[in-house]
Amino acid sequence: MKLLVGLGNPGKAYANSRHNVGFGCIDAISRDAGITMSERRRLVVIGQGQLENEEVVLVKPRTFMNNSGEALFYLISRFHIPLQDLLVIYDDMDLPAGKIRIRPSGSAGGHRGMESIIGTLRSHDYPRIRVGIGHPPEGMSEVEFVLGGFDSQEALLIKEAVVTVRDVVAGVIGHGLDWAMNHYN
Question: What does residue 132 show for φ and ψ, rounded to 5 degrees?
Answer without folding.
Answer: -65, 135
